[in-house]
Amino acid sequence: MRNLLKLFALSVVLIVAGANIYLWGYLPRYRPPPDLNIIYTPELVARGDYLVNEVLLCFDCHSSRDWTQYSGPAIPPLGAGRPCIDENSKPVGINFGSGGFPGRLCIRNITIDEKTGIGAWTDGEIARAIREGVSRNGESLFPIMPWFMYTEMSDEDISAVIAYLRTIPPVQSFRPERKLDFPLNVLTRLHPQPLEGPVPPIDRSDTVIYGRYLSKIARCEFCHSPRVRRSVDPRPGRLMAGGVPFFMGKDMHYSKNLTPHEDGLGEWTKDMFIQRFRLATKPFPVSEEDNSEMNWVEFSGMTDTDLGAIWDYLQTLEPKEMILLDRAD
């Protein structure tokens, strides 16, 4: 019996040791940064400007926001990061459970400052971070950065985004490294998935395919789809079905059902959908409870063609009744 107990104890030690070697020695999964050959042209930078400011809305997360104004516009200097959140922070944004953050998380500076931003990063390192969720040093990014929405972003569009980011004035704005409590420090290492190779341009002439592409990189799916607990994947059968809770001041708001169900977009037309994005083109004073987590002001800059493509894609989804959730996952 004593020998069996020793053997069992040894087995447990070996399993734990093996798991630790795997978690901290082989994860996250990543590949070397891609060798991007970006040729900087005015057209490429203009495309990047459009993507960063009207579609991806990078500054929504990488800048502080003014919630006394409708849509919470980003506060200059744009891209300089925002204050860290921790266990004492007020819950804001998408609701993954009440209470403070389990650890410390700081949204980084994405200006081209070489010491505190991404100025010393290669184009390939920036592309890998955005699309594959791995930092310059090989560390996994916390999935509040929705890299999993950007995995299908074409090399053409990621090059445009990088070209534009290189034009943003550098801002020296230091952000401390994150500290994640268990089990987040382990779970975060499991998510990144390296791309297998180049990502070709999307066929913009097929509006359904292009609309799906835009709905991913504009994070429609991220905010309007309930997620599997402790995963970056949407719940099966609930894609774009809405009901995801967001903290807005003392209130809870819920994302809209974007499927063609009667409590979603079932009674809408394409023109109604497009015109909804034209209702707020400039910020205006508003209480936090009456505000919107969705930055309608910035999204109002999307073209009719792109918004129409998103509509065409959404109309192909299976109609689903909206279910209001207690938390997003």
From TrEMBL:
Q: Does the keyword Acyltransferase apply?
A: no
Name the SUPFAM superfamilies for this protein.
Answer: Cytochrome c
Which Gene3D superfamilies does the record match to this protein? Cytochrome c-like domain
**The entry's keywords:** Heme, Iron, Membrane, Metal-binding, Transmembrane, Transmembrane helix
Q: Name one GO molecular function term.
A: electron transfer activity
Which residue numbers delimit the Cytochrome c domain? 43-169
Which parts pass through the membrane? 7-27
Q: What is this protein called?
A: Cytochrome c domain-containing protein
Q: Which organism is it from?
A: marine metagenome
